[in-house]
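Reading a protein record of the kind used here takes only a little practice. The record below shows the convention in full:
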Amino acid sequence: MTTIQASAPTAANATARAITATGLRKSYGDKLVLDGIDLNIAEGTVFALLGPNGAGKTTTVEILSTLIGADAGEARVAGHHLTRDADAVRSVIGVTGQFSAVDNLLTAEENLLLMADLHHLDRREGKRRAQDLLRRFDLSEVAGKTAVTFSGGMRRKLDLAMTLVGDPRVIFLDEPTTGLDPRSRRTMWEIIRGLVADDGVTIFLTTQYLEEADQLADRIAVLDHGRLIAEGTADELKQRIPGGHVRVRFADARSLDDAAGIFGIATRDEESLTLQIPSDGSIPNLRAVLDTLESTDVRAESLTVHTPDLDDVFLTLTGQPRPAATAASTEENV
């Protein structure tokens, strides 16, 4: 099993854990979906779970949000035991799934008031909270319009606002920006950042948009065939993948020849007059390249650093055949 540990951003909450899990397993018949995963996620952070379709992402969210039970393992959410204190868990979480919970026949305000009723808020408090959320999500001007008239971005904002009616401390966002245009997606990112920075909420995010994880997540885990196969910050994961390099461009072929003789293992491109020098992207490595150039008479015109991105991480780490010892299918309907 692999332990995933999401580091807290400040010393104040360094020991507080929003989600812990040990050995979570789930099968549907002979199809093994989760193969014993451990989680240790700090409060007030964004934790992103990446993986291909069928990896087990949605099943993980469904278990941790008490929608389905695990076959084995234990978990706590906001200190509450997942099965023994399921009602307490539900009282402190919010869930926004891949498919909107918005009722198209109700107005934006009516959708929020319905959620307030489901949370057993009295009429005055429900009204107050609905108005606050409409303002916060820039939906006040459409409060009286039915949701069927909303754009995709407006619907997703309303969906998330409905999740916040119950004032959750942990929010599960299962692919929250699927189908949104780039502008709407970035608006959602700002909202998510605000929930963490201003409210101290913990976000458990699943996404197939790797840029989304790169932009939002304090820690990222990669799930494949029901197993956690890698974890770390975005930068830590990128450094695990080979292919990083420094590309140096020269003014003429002679300078390129001289530099190639100095660096040896570099790859040269005669047409573009560039030298590609292997690098892990770290400052010490870059400084070593610059110091080497400065100590010679070779003059470079430009220098750029190229490091693997999360796409490289995803493609390198996922999609490998499942080990023969646990070769059961992990397909998941998501």
